[in-house]
Amino acid sequence: MSLSAASGTAGDGAGLRVRGVTKRFGSTVAVSGIDLAVPQHSRVAIVGPSGCGKSTLLNMICGLDEPSEGTISVLGASSPAERLARCAWMPQRDLLLPWRDVLGNAALALENRGLRAAEARRQVAPLVARFGLAGFEDKRPAQLSGGMRQRVSFLRTLVAGKEVLLLDEPFGALDSITRADLQQWLRSALDTEPRTVLLVTHDVEEALLLGRRVVVMSPRPGQIAATFDVDAAVAEGSRRDALRRPEFTALRDEVLAVLEAGLAGAGDSSAPARQAEAARSAEAGA
Amino acid sequence: MKRFLRPVPTLAVIALLAVLWEAASHWFGVPDYILPSLDSIFSTMADQWSGTLASATWVTTEEVLLGFALAIAVAAGLAVILHSSRILRNACYPLLIGSQAVPIVVIAPVLTIIFGFTITPKLVVVALVCFFPVVVNAVDGLAAVDPELLRVMRTLDGGRWAAFRRVEAPAALPSLFTGLRVAATYAPIGAVFGEFAGSQNGLGYLMLQATPQLETPLVFAAIFILTAEAIVLFVAVTMLERLCCPWAREGKQ
Question: Does residue A145 sit within a domain?
Fold first, then answer.
């Protein structure tokens, strides 16, 4: 099978739009007044300290939870059921089914749609090699390394064939070497199969490497503190290549400064949240 | 090699107990009708096998296996029903636990009155003894499924049935087997209770006949066979578990 997703229909409703979204759990405000847009086939990364409501936001976008206030539209659809049908969600933990092998886990969405198990496995089999899992088709999750499990989880998410991908710290549980390797791999996978991607991370470099735009969130209640545009040329190549460019490190320091300011201000609740819209486009090699 | 050596300590303890047993009956003058020697028990087993023990063993085995199967069917069905509705669970769970307060030994004669001297009251007693650990473990297993897994299923176009079939049921399997292993050791006890309350054959019936005549070796022979039956059932359930959920053992390594 091919991994291509059904493309969006309405031109103006295309992509992902979050308007004035607030989520309260009892008296706790998890996220407050979030406005966010991801154009179709673009990639946006959200960075923020833990507990800033990044995961809450993703859960709401994909239709698993509803916002207390505000609206979310995914490819022009706003009901939770329609959002669920359009969004694929990759949670922080790999959450593979331990009793299923690699093919069985990857083929889950196809089976859920009514395909027989054997047919679903047959369709997914050709993709396994592209995900660096050749030879591990009939291994169960307990027999795989953390990086491999994460790849199976991502394959399972892609096989669902949804237009929008919501990735919640996809590499959070991995060591830094595996993580760098998978970041590179994910980027090339998304370059060949463009999707509308919203990625959540607490790693600024990861956000800059994977996102065309980086949104910084401040903690408790989660609000958008700043937005940065990342020029493709600045983040090109491997993490090491990118880190050699002064524009990249400058951008990283700028993001970090916003993050630190947000953390410093978090103790003082009277301080107005920083709402700087610091759009920036760095020129590469100029 | 290590696998091969694992049962050695257990076998050593059994051998030690056997030696103490023989010592008690042969050299310390414990009379045969109180504690028959092991060799007299085994020779009784051999002598009376074809005459009485074989048919009694068969009758009891049939009760154990059918009763166990009945318990599994009822418990699994009940677990699914209780899991599917919170209201039903809240309504029935206390009753379920309360049902264990009723002494089965007392129920057995009533069942004999209802069903007569047939196999039915024995099956019901075995099922009553066995179904509780199975249903409790199955319900717990179904409830213990990682809620995040169920959310992932929803984003992968999985409905309620898909979630049950592909996530909840397999996830609950190891827990179900825990219940089955406990139940396997109870099943022969249930069959004997059932036979004590009224029967024409079976190991429990045989013990009831042999006791007033002080045929203690025969009583012990029946006890040994019942014990062996419980162990075989336990081992069979354990082997089935390894076959059905090999992944559960991997995860613990």
Answer: yes
Contact A21, A34 (CB under 8 A): yes
Q: What angle do CA B46, B50, B53 make, to 5 degrees?
A: 75
Q: How many domains does chain A have?
A: 2
- Domain contains A70: yes
**Do A248 and A280 belong to one domain?**
yes
**Min Cα separation A87/chain B (Å):** 7
Task: Assess whether A176 and A213 both reside in one domain.
Answer: yes
Size of interface A-B (CB pairs under 8 A): 64
Q: Please, which residues have CB within 8 angstroms of residue A209's CB and are 6 or more apart in sequence?
A: A183, A187, A235, A239, A242
- Whether A103 and A233 map to the same domain: the answer is no
Chain B hits for A142, Cβ within 8 Å: 247, 250-251, 253
CB contacts of B244 in chain A (<8 Å) are none
State whether A95 and B154 contact (CB < 8 Å).
no
Tell me if A142 and B162 make a contact (CB, 8 A cut-off): no
pTM value is: 0.79
How far does the CA of residue A263 sit from the closest CA of chain B (Å)? Answer: 29
Q: Do B154 and A84 touch (CB under 8 A)?
A: yes
The string of DSSP codes covering B57-121 is HHHHHHHHHHHHHHHHHHHHHHHHHHHH-HHHHHHHHHHHHHHTTS-HHHHHHHHHHHH-SSSHH
* pLDDT of amino acid B22: 86
Taking residue B3's Cβ as centre, other Cβ atoms within 10 Å add up to: 6
Residue A273's pLDDT band (boundaries 50, 70, 90)?
very low
A216 and A274 share one domain: yes
**CB A97 within 8 Å of CB B166:** yes
CB contacts, 8 Å: A97 with chain B: 149, 166-167, 170
Q: Which domain holds residue A62?
A: 8-14+36-75+163-286
**Mutant choice from B154, B156, B247 vs A, greatest count of A C-beta within 10 A:** B156
Residues A251 and A143 in one domain: no
Cα gap A165→B170, rounded to integer Å: 28
Residues A124 and A171 in one domain: no
Kindly state whether residues A183 and A246 are assigned to the same domain. yes
Chain A residue numbers touching B162 (CB-CB < 8 A): 111-112
Per-residue pLDDT of chain B (253 residues; tens, 9 = 90+): 577 788 888 899 999 999 988 888 888 877 878 888 888 899 988 988 888 889 999 999 999 999 999 999 999 999 999 988 889 888 888 888 888 888 888 888 898 889 888 888 999 999 999 989 999 999 999 988 988 899 999 888 888 888 899 999 999 999 999 999 999 999 999 999 999 888 888 899 999 999 888 888 999 999 999 999 999 999 999 999 999 888 887 655 4
Q: Does A31 reside within a domain?
A: no
Cβ separation of A99 and B148 shorter than 8 Å? no
